[in-house]
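**Folding the chain**
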Amino acid sequence: MSDILNPAVLVGDDNVPHNSYAYYITLDKPWIMSKGAMIAYYGQMQFRTLMQGLQSGLLASIAGTISAPMYMGNFVVAEGQGTLIIGDRGFDINSFDLDDGNLTVRAANLLAFEPGLQLNQSIVPGYLTLIGTGKFLASSNGPVMFAEPPVRVDPQSLVGWADCPSPSHHYDQNWVNGFMAAGAAMMGAGSGEEQQFDFTSAGTVLIQSSEKVRDDADVVRTIETQIPALSQGGIRRIMATAQAHISQQ
C-alpha cells in the first residue's frame, strides 16, 4: 500500500513520495497553473482564470508576465495557503529552475510556473517560451532526457529546448523518396524517420522517452487562427488532407 498523504509529509515543493506522476507545492504565493491540473489540496485556496484575475485588479502584478494571448484560457491562478497537489493524466512531472534563462516548452506539457517568469508565445506552433528566474513544472510521457546539440529529434518526442535558437525542419530525402514513404506521404502520413527538428547551436534539448504527444489542441488552435488568411483553394486542400488522415486512422 502506498504512503498515506497528509500535510506533515508534504513539506516544500517536490514529487509526492514514491510517485513521479504527482507534484505538490506549498502555496504561500500565487502560482499560475494549467487548467485542470489540480487534483487535491490541503488548506484554503481559490482558483481564478487569468482573465478574471486581471479584470478584478487582484492580479495586476501578474499582467506583465503573460504575453501569449492565444493561451490565456489554458491557465488559472492558484491563491491561498496550504499544499496544492497537481497531476497530468498519469504523465511524469518534473520541476525545472530557470536562472535568468530562456526555455521553450510544448504548451500541452507546461503545468505550472511562478509569476516571476515571463510567458511568451513561441514562433513555433504549439510552444511557449519562459524567460527569467523561477520554477516551473512540466509533464512528459516517460522520463526526460537532456541532450546537447547538434541533435535531431522526432517532433513528437520533443518537450522543449533551453538557451538555444528555435530548431529548423530536417527532412530525410532517402526516406521521403522511397516507394513506401512516397505512398504514405500521399495519404498525409509522417514519422520521426522522415522529419525531425534540427538543433545546431549551443544549449539543451529536452526529450521525452516516448513518441506519444499528450495533446494537440494548441496546434489546432494555431491552425485555426490562420484559416481567415487562406483562399478557398487553400481551405479545400487542408480539408482534403485532414480527411485523408481521418480515413487512415
About this structure: The chain has a mean pLDDT of 85.
